[in-house]
Amino acid sequence: MLNGISRMIKNHQDNFVTVMGIDPGLATTGYGILRSNGRNHEVLEAHYLKTSPKTNHFERLYYIFTEINNLMIKYHPKEIAIESQFVGKNVRSAISVAEARTVAILAASMNNIDIFSYAPTEIKESITGYGKADKQQVLEMVQALVPINEKKLMYDTSDAIAIALTRIHEW
Predict the structure, then answer these.
(1) Which one of 23, 67, 99, 159 is the catalytic residue?
(2) Helix 91-110 and helix 57-75: axis angle, to 10°?
(3) Which residue range is the domain that position 78 belongs to?
(4) Number of independent structural domains in the chain
(5) Which of 5, 44, 60, 115 is the most exposed place for a label (fewest CB within 10 A)?
(6) CATH, residue 28
(7) Which of these is catalytic: 67, 79, 156, 159?
(8) Catalytic residue chosen out of the listed positions 67, 79, 83, 99
(9) Domain for residue 129, yes or no?
(10) What does pTM read for this prediction?
């Protein structure tokens, strides 16, 4: 078993693998697609999908699904990393995030992509070394860890890149 794990780690280090990070949300879903060998990272594409609250709820979910699916078809990620559900006081908001998360997971499943899920504190710990870091601290560490040309990086986008990097750090 140990040899299998060693081979898997070596395989990731020798070869570049494409990983897609997703920060799900009904209003805004961030995504970051990275190519990495565990040491060197290249951002292939990073941005966010925005939906209007004036649009039908199901059309918003369909849009997120379609766009995420199209990105998966375009970049062929081997793995996706997605933020796990955080349930706060606003149940309606939590349900909307869960639905956006579900359509992204469905797209990955349909494309036979391995799926990994991380808690918000786990992502912050992996990127900043502190599980209660704020969004600005995560953004600044993302900018320090990966070459990215965006001058005004949105939190949803930097969070998605951080989620992908969390997966890469596990290799």
Answers:
(1) 23
(2) 40
(3) 16-169
(4) 1
(5) 5
(6) 3.30.420.10
(7) 156
(8) 83
(9) yes
(10) 0.90
* Exposure string over 14-46, b if 16+ CB within 10 A, otherwise e: eeebbbbbbbbbbbbbbbbbbebbbeebebeeb
> Would residue 3 count as lying in a domain?
no
14 catalytic? Reply is no
Number of H helices, E strands in the chain: 6, 5
Give residue-wise pLDDT tens across range 131-164.
999 999 999 999 999 988 777 889 999 999 999 9
Pairwise CA distance, residues 152 & 13, whole Å: 31
The mean pLDDT of 57-75, rounded to a whole number, is 98
φ, ψ for residue 5, nearest 5 deg: -65, -45
pLDDT tier at 1, thresholds 50, 70, 90:
very low
Instruction: Please report whether residue 126 resides in a domain.
Output: yes
DSSP alpha helices (H): ranges in 1-149?
Answer: 2-14, 57-75, 91-110, 120-128, 135-145
Is 23 part of the annotated catalytic residue set? yes
